[in-house]
Amino acid sequence: MSAINRRDFIKAASSMVGAAALAGVTPALAAPSEGKGPSVSASTRSYEIYAVKYAGPFDRKLAMALFNTGWNEEIQINFYTWVLRDKDGGTVLVDTGTGPTLARERNIKNFIPPETLIARLGVKPEQVSKVILTHMHYDHVGGMEVFPELYPKATFYVQKREYDFWLNDPISRRAPYKGLSSSIGNARMEEMLKSKRLVLVDGDKAVAPGMALLLTPGHTTGLQGVLVQTEKGPAVVASDSAHLARSYKDDVPSCLITDLPAWLKSYDKLRAKAALENIFPGHDALMASAYPAVAEGVTRLA
Predict the structure, then answer these.
(1) Average pLDDT, the chain
(2) How many CB atoms lie within 10 A of CB 25?
(3) DSSP readout, 255-274?
(4) Which of 85, 88, 166, 198 sits at a 20 to 30 Å CA gap from 292?
C-alpha cells in the first residue's frame, strides 16, 4: 500500500487527540451524558481485539477509501470481522462478514467463512454472548445467513436507525444502495427481531462492563463502533467509519458517504474516545500485516 505505512497506523495520540482522549476516560462505564456518550477505564473489564481477515486482498483506487484523494493510486483492502475476548474467555463478535450464498454469487476473492477463522482462536460457539453489527452492508451483515444458528446463545445488536433504513425505507432499494445490501441478511434480521434475539439500539449504549456501543453515522445512517478497554487503553473497533486508519489522521473519510457532516462529527467523537493507534478501521490491509498473527488469517490488534 504505497503512501500508507505503519507509522500512520500506530502513531500515538498527539496534539490532535491527546488531551481529548484523556478527557474521554471516566472512572467507570456510564450512561451518556452531555452528548459525550460512554467511556471506559482500566477499572472495568479488559478485552483483547482480534482482526479476522475473511476475504481479499482487493485492488481499489485510493480515492475510494480517501474522499477525492489519489485517483491514480492503487491500494489493497481486505474484508474483516473482529473478535473481542475477555480474560475469562467471554467472547463478543463484531460483524458477521459475508454469508456463503453471497460469497458464491459475487465470487468473493479468497473467501474463508468467518466462523472457520474465529474457531482458530479456540472460540466455542457457546462462549459467544453477543454479535454486534456495525452496519448493514453485505460484507458486514451477510453472514446473518448462518450466524444465528452457529452461535445460538448470542444476542445481536444493531442501531435502530440502521435497521429502519435498510428494512423500511424505500430509498435503500434504489441503485446507489441496492448493491451494498444483503437481502438474505436483511431477511434474517427481520426474523431475529421477531424472536427477540435482535436488539435495536438507540444511540450510545453500555452493553457490558468495559464495553459500549457508539453511534457514529456518516458512512451509513446508523453505523456504530464498539468501545472497549484494552491493555493499550480505550480502543474502538470503528468498522467503516474509516476504510483506512489514516482517515482519522488526515480527517478524510471514504467516498462512500451517506452524510458527510455527520461523518466528520463522528471522527471528532471517536478521536475523543481513544488514541489514534487504538481506533481500528474497516478494511485497512495493515490490520492483517502490521500486527502479530495468532492464527492463519487472524491478528491481534490489542
Answers:
(1) 89
(2) 16
(3) S--S-HHHHHHHHHHHHTTS
(4) 88
Rounded Cα distance between 119 and 256, Å, is: 32
The pLDDT of residue 37: 73
**What is the pLDDT at residue 25?**
31
List for the chain the helix, strand, coil content (%; round to 5).
30, 25, 40
- For 222-247, give the DSSP string: T-EEEEEEETTEEEEEEETT-SSTHH
CA-based R_g, the chain, Å: 18
Q: What span, in angstroms and rounded, lies between the C-alpha atoms of 235 and 77?
A: 21
Beta bridge partners of 91: 85, 128
Mutual angle of helices 183-195 and 160-168, in 10-degree steps:
120
C-alpha cell at 233: 487503553
Find all residues with CB under 8 Å of 131, minimum gap 6, and list them: 92, 93, 94, 95, 96, 147, 151, 154, 155, 156, 157
Q: How far is CA 117 from CA 133, 200, 283, in A?
A: 18, 27, 17
Residue type, 280: F
Tell me the average pLDDT across 286-294. 98
Residues near 169 by Cβ (< 8 Å), separated by ≥ 6?
Answer: none
Grid look-up 435498510 returns 166
Q: Which fold has domain 6-27+37-300?
A: Metallo-beta-lactamase; Chain A (3.60.15)
